[in-house]
């Protein structure tokens, strides 16, 4: 590549990939350590870290694209990439290049591994699932066209599962399982019943990812900027969030009219009216009850996982749940 193109690509990578909390990428390394039950050697750590950076590159690809689609202003405390001087619509190609970097790294570091095709297919399938979730979200809740009849808790669940849960929760754990050579099916000496660890992981991690997003939606309404590190804008931006969908499921005809008239309007007074109605409907109490119910259900599911040497471990899931339960930011 010419020097100026290489420098542009480097700037794109440095601006868009490492700026977040890196939770998704670190989850790969943490999960491999839990599965192996020991500190990783240098080669193992390198491989786990490369897979983790693959997840972070995928996240960056989604965010650069999403910011353009949403006409967002800032991301992670700095201007969105497309708003940086001289970038503009070049950000479209830059997003493609962030995604392409994943497959370059996978080929370089995993081409000779028996699970190479498995992790390739996993990244491709997860990308497709996330893009389907993004499509449903975009056509359900466009910023410039408020139609609350398109909203429902069922639609919210569908969007969250496809847009967030697969890539944020299932992908890092499945990558770690493949790297640790965990088979797709096995039995333990204690029971003849076959265990399908990838399906089992998915059955816990997808609801866990949904819980995480419901938390995010609730914090956008209830949290202060000092607490959550940003100003909540879901009401102003016509987001198909858990809060509005829960309110719609409870609203009287009068309350529904107030929501129709005020939700998704770029007006602080309208936002205040919606927030007041959320308080009137006792969304804080409903959320607290929801959180306790989901926490109990997830712990119950984790407790049923049969453990064996070199296979799935409950700690993989309890560590995820421990990080997000009752989080305040």
Dominant shape: globular
Distance between the termini: 42 Å
Strand order of the largest sheet: 1-2
Helix proportion of residues, in percent? 55-70%
Radius of gyration: 21 Å
How much is the average pLDDT?
93
What about the largest sheet? 2 strands, antiparallel
Helices and strands, in N-to-C order? HHHEEHHHEEHHHHHHH
Structural class: mainly alpha
The amount of beta strand, in percent, is under 5%
Number of strands: 4
Low-confidence stretches: none
What kind of assembly state do the chains in view correspond to? single chain
Number of helices: 13
Can you offer a commentary on this structure?
The chain has 329 residues and is mainly alpha-helical. The chain has 13 helices and 4 strands. The protein has helices at 3-16, 23-36, 42-70, 90-110, 116-140, 153-179, 197-222, 225-228, 242-250, 253-262, 268-280, 283-303, 315-324; strands at 74-75, 78-79, 186-188, 191-195. The strands form 2 sheets. A two-stranded antiparallel sheet has the order 1-2. Strands 3-4 form a two-stranded antiparallel ribbon. Helix 2 (23-36) runs antiparallel to helix 3, helix 5 (116-140) packs antiparallel against helix 6 (153-179) and helix 6 (153-179) packs across helix 7. It is globular and about 60 Å long. The mean pLDDT is 93.
Kindly summarize this structure in a few lines.
By secondary structure, the chain is mainly alpha-helical.
């Amino acid at each position: 590549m010419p020097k100026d193109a290489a420098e542009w690509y480097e700037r794109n990578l440095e601006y868009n990939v490492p700026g977040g909390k890196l939770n998704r990428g670190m989850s790969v390394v943490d999960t491999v350590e839990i599965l192996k039950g020991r500190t990783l050697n240098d080669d193992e750590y390198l491989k786990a870290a490369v897979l983790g950076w693959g997840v972070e590159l995928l996240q960056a690809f989604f965010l650069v694209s999403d910011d353009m689609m949403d006409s967002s202003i800032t991301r992670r405390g700095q201007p969105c990439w497309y708003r940086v001087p001289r970038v503009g619509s070049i950000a479209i190609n830059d997003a493609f290049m962030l995604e392409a970097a994943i497959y370059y790294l996978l080929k370089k570091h995993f081409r000779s591994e028996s699970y190479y095709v498995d992790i390739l297919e996993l990244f491709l399938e997860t990308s497709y699932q996330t893009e389907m979730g993004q499509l449903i979200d975009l056509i359900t809740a466009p910023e410039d066209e408020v139609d609350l009849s398109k909203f429902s808790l069922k639609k919210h669940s569908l969007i969250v599962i496809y847009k967030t849960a697969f890539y944020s929760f299932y992908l890092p754990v499945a990558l770690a399982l493949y790297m640790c050579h965990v088979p797709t099916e096995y039995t333990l000496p204690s029971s003849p019943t076959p265990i399908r660890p990838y399906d089992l992981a998915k059955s816990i991690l997808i609801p866990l990812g949904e819980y995480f997003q419901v938390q995010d939606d609730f914090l956008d309404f209830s949290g202060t900027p000092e607490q959550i590190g940003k100003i909540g804008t879901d009401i102003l931006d016509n987001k198909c969030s858990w809060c509005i969908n829960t309110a719609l499921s409870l609203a009287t005809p009068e309350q529904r009219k107030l929501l129709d008239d005020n939700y998704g309007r770029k007006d602080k007074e309208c936002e205040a009216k919606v927030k007041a109605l959320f308080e009137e409907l006792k969304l804080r109490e409903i959320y607290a009850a929801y959180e306790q119910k989901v926490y109990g259900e997830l712990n119950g599911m984790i407790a049923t996982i049969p453990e064996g040497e070199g296979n799935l471990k409950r700690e993989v899931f309890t560590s995820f749940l421990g990080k997000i339960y009752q989080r305040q930011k």
